[in-house]
Structure formats: C-alpha cells, structure tokens
Amino acid sequence: MKVLLVEGAPGVGAPAESELRAAGHVVVGCEPAEPSSPCRGLEVVGDCPLDQGDVDVAVVSRAGGDLTPSERGALCAARHRIPVVVAGDPRHAVSFGPGTHMAGPDLVAACTEAAGSGAAHVSALRRELLMAGVITPEDVDGPKPPISFDVRREPRRLRLTVRAPEGDPRLASITKSAAEALRRYDQWASVIDVVTETS
Fold first, then answer.
1. Within this chain, do residues 89 and 7 fall inside the same structural domain, yes or no?
2. Model pTM?
3. Would you say residue 178 has pLDDT above 80?
C-alpha cells in the first residue's frame, strides 16, 4: 500500500511513518524542499505524489488546533477522492470530507480499511441517482433494499457492483447511470469495473 503522509508540524508524523513502514507499506510525503513554497507540486520542478495516481490512502498527523499550511496535502488527497485517515490525538481530529476516517488504536488496520472503502463513492452516486429520479428512496432504503450499490477501491481502479431483483427492467439503465455518476465523482480512477448481480 502506498501512503501519503501529511504532517501538521515537522516531525509529528514520525511515529505513524515508522508504524506504516514496519508493516511493509511505502510512505511518501508532500513537504516542499523550499520553505517558501506552499507545496511540493508548486515548486519550480515540482512533483506532487498524487500525480502518479497510485496513492492508496493519506494519513494526516495533526499537531492540534487550526489546520496548518503543511496539512494542505490532506485536502488535495480528499479532492482526488483518496481516503484520509486522521492520526494523533482524537481531540484534534477534523474532517477532510466524506472520505475521512479516524485512525483509532491501530493505524495500519485503519489505513487498510480506508484504502479499500468506497463508502463515500456510494453515497455520492446514490445521491445523484435519487436527485435524477433514476431510483427512488424505496429502492435503496430499509434493512434489505431491493437495489444496492457497492464500491471497492483498488490501486488505480474502482469496482462497482449493482444489485437488483431478477427481472427488474431498470437494471441496465440504473447500472449505466451509476457508472456515469461514479465517473463524475471520481475522475482520477483509471478504470471502473462494473458488475451486476440479481437475486
């Protein structure tokens, strides 16, 4: 797993980096070489770690208080639809959007779970399909809704599963609309695999 480590203050992410590297994960940072630069990607010959498209999850180690300029990398990750795991003192936790996860006592497990989670993607496509009238609340609400969506994140790709009752004449149009909504929400995924399941 490739992890983007963002530090709220220099050195505050060292424990997280050690834990992640010890578990065999690749850790990259986005701190600029020049202190006057706002981020690594905006330097004269800049290279943002997110440009390669292979970051699985971002970890932000907060120092507390308001967001610092050095924590911008977590905002960039969130804009790229990469899950953000907030590590450190939970009293200083903030949300970086719908893909935000709290680290808890096991940072590596939290990162692994967040990296595969497409929960934010599902929420976005459901919202769009409901607003467009492609599905109704009765289709997707309740303990056993007749129509459901699942998204799993993998390196550079998403796997969308659409489940519907056998013989539902809307299945093809719902699947097409869901895939299009997913692409609009996450334009950075290279590949979207679409699977339909009926019951």
1. yes
2. 0.89
3. yes
